[in-house]
User: Which sequence fits this backbone?
């Protein structure tokens, strides 16, 4: 499959030790963009030496890094996001980006739960939390997901039209929520998942990281629900056909 229109954005915070393995797993020739987000371990230099495109986003936050990657890739047809810790297999990019490139899906989310998960790759708590979040996405946004996986792909113009605003760990959830609300085709595919190649977890493996992620996602959920009820309450032609449905949605 021709993946030349795909840019893979890898948000990275202190991932110097894991990045070489993470980058090497992707098929050759892919535009790999590492967004360094205030690392102190030489992440940017390691990424550049491994052949990736590198930018620095001084505003801290997972979503801030993802958004900076989108802005720095104006020519990409499809943007894929993946973690920079080597826990994903870049060979799965075909499965993740393929349905979007073929016009069969608007947003593809890689599921670590239905994919091949290596022992120790996800804590039991992370599995349960992601299953619960998947259920919440079904109930609140009409999107059936088994996992809120960060390895995903979406057309760049579709993503811009969604208007995702969160710049923290709520970014992935807001993308799904807005896509579901706009009636986009959100498709889940299984992806492989293994323990990070090196270094320490900053999110699910730490109490502080888990708490910040939970707070960020709770904020996003509240904001989306408030928006939905505000939209419903608003009478007449102010309805959001153009505002919430990206132009590419009708494909
Ligand atoms: N830009 C940015 N990236 C982050 C931040 N926290 C984590 N990441 C990246 O997000 C991805 C997932 O983080 P990780 O520590 O592996 O979390 P875990 O998978 O839940 O253990 C990795 O690529 C991290 O480098 C952050 O505050 N800013
Ligand atoms: Mg990880």
Assistant:
């Amino acid at each position: 499959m021709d993946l030349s229109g795909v840019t893979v954005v890898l948000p990275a915070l202190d991932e110097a030790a894991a990045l070489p393995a993470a980058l090497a797993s992707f098929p050759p020739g892919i535009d790999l963009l590492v967004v360094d987000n205030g690392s102190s371990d030489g992440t940017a230099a390691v990424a550049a030496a491994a052949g990736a495109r590198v930018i620095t986003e001084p505003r801290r936050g997972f979503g801030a890094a993802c958004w900076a990657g989108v802005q720095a890739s104006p020519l990409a047809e499809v943007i894929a996001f993946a973690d920079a810790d080597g826990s994903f297999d870049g060979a799965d990019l075909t499965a993740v980006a393929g349905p979007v490139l073929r016009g069969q899906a608007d947003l593809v989310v890689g599921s670590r739960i239905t994919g091949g998960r290596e022992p120790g790759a996800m804590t039991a708590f992370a599995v349960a939390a992601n299953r619960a979040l998947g259920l919440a996405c079904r109930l609140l946004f009409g999107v059936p997901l088994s996992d809120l996986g960060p390895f995903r792909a979406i057309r760049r113009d579709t993503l811009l039209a969604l208007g995702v605003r969160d710049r923290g760990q709520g970014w992935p959830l807001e993308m799904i929520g807005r896509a579901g609300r706009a009636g986009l085709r959100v498709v889940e595919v299984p992806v492989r998942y293994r323990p990070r190649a090196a270094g320490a977890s900053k999110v699910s493996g730490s109490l502080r990281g888990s708490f910040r992620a939970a707070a960020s996602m709770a904020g996003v959920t509240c904001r989306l629900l408030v928006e939905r009820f505000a939209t419903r309450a608003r009478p007449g032609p102010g309805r959001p056909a153009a505002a919430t449905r990206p132009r590419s949605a009708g494909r």
Q: What stands out?
A: Residues 11 and 35 are 5 Å apart (CA to CA).
